[in-house]
Design brief:
Length: about 190
């Protein structure tokens, strides 16, 4: 009986010791490169890009409902599709780098600001040609800022994957800016 108990203890120890070593080794191992914290410049880019994209999606959802001219409505629908796709990619990067949507030290919340909410409310109060003109003016302004932001990240960001993602999204933003200026001219915006 004592011999059986001793064998059982030895077998149990032989099984649990390697498991304990694996757990201890995993805990001591540094994070994978994919899970590493982003440099500050890249974290700020990611936060600004996500928030900017969400703002454009929200404004464009309003425009898809309220625009009086077909070109503005089609542009708004395209903005919702394209910025949703871009933000999905950006959010995957945020998740991979453990950036929380509620914000963390040094990273603002990844939600539209009060200013963006006020802009949305002001747009919702407009209608007809006034709405179209205000929305397109906002899209020109937002895309001008977005193109500059993505160019800066593509050129000077510290994280290679973030540089590549910014460079991949940039042509779409540049095309949006071109379209926004063309449609803006059609609704009476002087550039």
């Amino acid at each position: 009986m004592q011999k059986r108990t001793l064998v059982l203890i030895l077998l149990t120890s032989a099984i649990s010791l390697p498991v304990a070593l694996v757990v201890a080794t995993d805990a001591a191992r540094p994070a994978l490169a994919d899970e590493a914290a982003l440099p500050g410049v890249d974290t700020q880019f990611l936060a600004k890009a996500i928030v900017g994209g969400r703002n454009e999606i929200e404004l464009s959802q309003v425009a898809a409902r309220k625009a009086s001219q077909a070109e503005v409505k089609h542009f708004a629908e395209q903005m919702v599709r394209d910025h949703t796709a871009a933000n999905d990619k950006l959010m995957k990067e945020a998740d991979r780098h453990k950036i929380k949507t509620s914000g963390t030290y040094g990273t603002p919340p990844l939600e539209p600001s009060e200013q963006a909410s006020m802009t949305k409310q002001q747009l919702e109060a407009l209608s007809g040609t006034q709405f179209d003109k205000a929305y397109m003016q906002r899209m020109i302004q937002d895309h001008t800022e977005a193109v500059a932001l993505f160019k800066e990240e593509a050129k000077n960001g510290k994280d290679k994957q973030m540089n590549e993602l910014a460079a991949a999204i940039l042509p779409t933003l540049e095309e949006h800016l071109k379209q926004a200026r063309e449609i803006g001219g059609q609704v009476g915006i002087q550039s």
